[in-house]
Amino acid sequence: MVAAMSERSCPNCGAALPKLLRHARMVNCEFCGSSVVLEDEVVRKAGEAGEMLDAPELIRLGHATALPGGVFEAFGHVRYDYGRGHWDEYHGSFDGELVWVSVDEGDVVLQRAVAPRAVPKGGRRLFRIGTEITIEGATYTCTEVDNAEAVAFRGQLPEPVAVGDLHLFANFTGYKGAIVSGEIWNEGAAWFEGQWIDPFEVTPL
Amino acid sequence: MRIVIVMVSLAVLGAAGYASWYGIGTVSRDTGASSVRAGSVGAAGVRRVRVK
Amino acid sequence: MTGAVRSIDCTNCGAGLKVLGGGRVTTQVCGYCGAALDANEDYRVLEVFAGMQRPASPFRLGMTGRIQGIEFTIVGTIGKIERYDGRTWSWVDHQLYSPTHGYAWLTVEDGHTLLTRKIRDWPVGPFLTSRMVERAEARPSRGWRRQTFQYYSTSSWKIDFVEGEFTWRPTRGARGVTVSLMCNSGTPQMLAYADNGSEREVEVTRYFPQAAEAFGAEPPMSEGIHALQPYEPKSSSAFYRRWFGGVLAASVVGAVGLSTVGVATTTLWDGPVREMPEALVFEVGDTSRPAVIRLRHNIRNEWSAFGVTLTGPDGTLLAETFRDISYYTGSDWSEGSRSTALGFQPQIAGPHQIALELDEASTPSVADSALRVMVRDGQSRPLWLWMAAGLFGLAFLWSASTKLRHKAARWSGSDWTEEDD
After folding, report:
1. Is the pTM of this model over 0.80?
2. Which of A42, A122, A175, C295 is the most buried (most CB within 10 A)?
3. At what angle do helices B2-21 and C235-260 cross, to 10 degrees?
């Protein structure tokens, strides 16, 4: 599932891009800091990859991390800023399965995309505290709504994320630490189902 | 502390062993030279009177 | 977490305040003037808690320490009190923050330090409220991470002091209820259902005695045994258990040995009193220990009184006394005994002589009933060893029950009472 694709070079500076993963649709040029979008066989510069300020991180790009139930290896890292602080989202392989892991001041959530048929309908109207949604029989209540800006990305991502884009996020809390999060931005929306992870059970390998 | 407790319990064990072996407490008070000399001879008067 | 703002000036009193918490902090309370500031709106004053008394705690804002290898900073302090039945309990909760591991609480209660963390994987079953506890007929319990937690106590607390940074808005005087459950096995842990009126959280608390050392604070003086304090066997308790077990066994073996390995009993006479010779002669070999003469008179609803004269081998009078026997019995009762004994300390080995004379009796026919006269020398008395065994047994139980007694002390603070109906 996670296999390397052909080698490419940066459309901005011509430097060789890292070996690309089959699922990658976006990569940052480590040489000039451009963010490069891969569309079919074409590479295109989409902007800058942003500045990733040093901050203590629970998960590091390219390093294996043990999570309850498996090992996670991050290929891509996006940072969202909400004004007073930021949180990190990591895309990578969890025992071979591609997942997102979000880390926000000790709140660690392993997220998988909600199946398209199960995505709740209602769009932006759902992004309000107290709203209840149902996904595959389980009920979740909206507990948090936040605007955040994608400020930086590193590595390879399965979808383009434009640095500077404003995203509206909402967290819906369900039973036994189950979390659904929705995210809306100019070009689209995404829904994830997640499971809360105790940060003390996240250990770098 | 430990040595004190060990010594005390050994003393208790020793004393109980000694007293048990030598049958301390089995000698009746009305036996022995002293009891006889004390004048218990002809003690009939001391005897309780039965009513039953 | 952004790292830009590291200190601010209190917008109420102007005091310089360090910003130690992360981006999720919403409220900062000035430790100088008690002003609650809105961290999301340029630290505007929300309200002022004047004249707060800082509770005693060895921990201060800004102290850092490692918990399971992760560095946490003390970013907030909350003093809580509970009044019930004329008594007051107070404790201090310190808000801890780590950029990677989030928020936790360090509690100082009766000098014991505890660590509390919020959990997201709530136990199965509804959120346990104090009302549910009041209505419960059996001690409520919940299962969490393969452990069973049983109801411990309900605490109705009030915030008395607040200082520092919080991810919520604490106010002095705010009330809350925490229902605590404790696990019965393994490392002691408490599961707390905390309800502050607007938010409900489930938290897990563990004993954290390393806190003072980890944060470089003066270790507080702890009082009593805390409910969460794990049992730590002292090396001496194992020693005492073995020692008292040993001396107990020794005294039991001795007592049983003395009771079973007896000296043979010699029967001097077994027949009607009337036919008994005037004097019975018996040999005493052991002069180190007492000898005992036993009379067994086979009477029923009668009494008899014997004059006893005991003479030593050299003619010394060893005893001149009497022995009564009386035995009365009905369909379901009996009184008295058919036996009596005379113990004496032989002075010289050799033939002793005992003269028994039936002085008085309830009826003349008593003289026809059978009397048995037995003697044994080298008499021991295992009773003393049995008494020592009893003493050592108690000491053994005490030393063997330290763990149980510790557990009982831990649960003694529970407010659950079983109803009798």
Report:
1. no
2. C295
3. 0
